[in-house]
Amino acid sequence: MIDEKKMEQRPSWDDYFMSILQTVKERSTCYRRKVGAVIVKDKRIIATGYNGAPTGLKHCYEVGCLREKLNIPSGQHHELCRGIHAEQNAIIQAAAYGVSINGATIYITHSPCVQCAKMMINAGIKRIVYSGDYPDELAKQLLDEANIVTERYIKA
Q1: Residues 98, 68: Cα–Cα separation, whole Å
Q2: What is the DSSP string of 50-89?
Q3: Residues classed as catalytic
Q4: At what angle are helices 86-96 and 114-123 packed, to 10 degrees?
Q5: Which of 58, 85, 96, 148 counts the most CB atoms within 10 A of its CB?
Q6: Each residue of 38-72: pLDDT tens digit?
């Protein structure tokens, strides 16, 4: 006998992966914004990433935030930061282990910047689910042009 009440209590796939994302982002070492990414294919987690310094380098909490020191506004001059974005870390993790993400969905805490958007386009990501906005209109334009589905996640 199927317990329909139990079935109704199960989270949707988007709810499930977005809740995991909240744990992933806690590894972030960024002062300004904790960002996480989870790449999923066929309802399986392929890779995760969070924003912070490259492997083996000192984190901002050890050396200070260059962006804060230079008073750089959010969404500008991404290259002036010792950290790497969560989406980039997740894509690199998949590549390092030889796992294809072509056709995958990426769950992220914020809509992507233009650099991450271009990487996702070339990596074959087909769907982006995000919870918060990031101020990058060019990223949105490129993702639309590439026919990548972007969805703002709002928990019911």
Answers
A1: 36
A2: E-BSPTTSPPHHHH--HHHHTTPPTTS-TTS-S-B-HHHH
A3: 87
A4: 30
A5: 85
A6: 999 999 999 999 999 999 999 988 998 888 889 88
How many H-runs (helices) and E-runs (strands) does the chain carry? 7, 5
- What would the DSSP string read from start to end of 24-55? HGGG---SS---EEEEEETTEEEEEEE-BSPT
pTM greater than 0.85 (yes/no): yes
Angstrom distance (rounded) from CA 65 to CA 43? 36
Closest CA to 35 of 115, 90, 97, 103: 90
What does the alpha-carbon distance between residue 116 and residue 113 come to, in Å, rounded to a whole number?
5
For residue 108, the cross-strand partners are: 37, 130
Q: Distances from the Cα of 71 to the Cαs of 5, 38, 81, 141, 156, in angstroms? A: 52, 30, 12, 27, 37
Q: What angle do CA 79, 69, 73 make, to 5 degrees?
A: 55
Could you give the CA distance from residue 64 to residue 69 in angstroms, rounded to a whole number?
Answer: 8
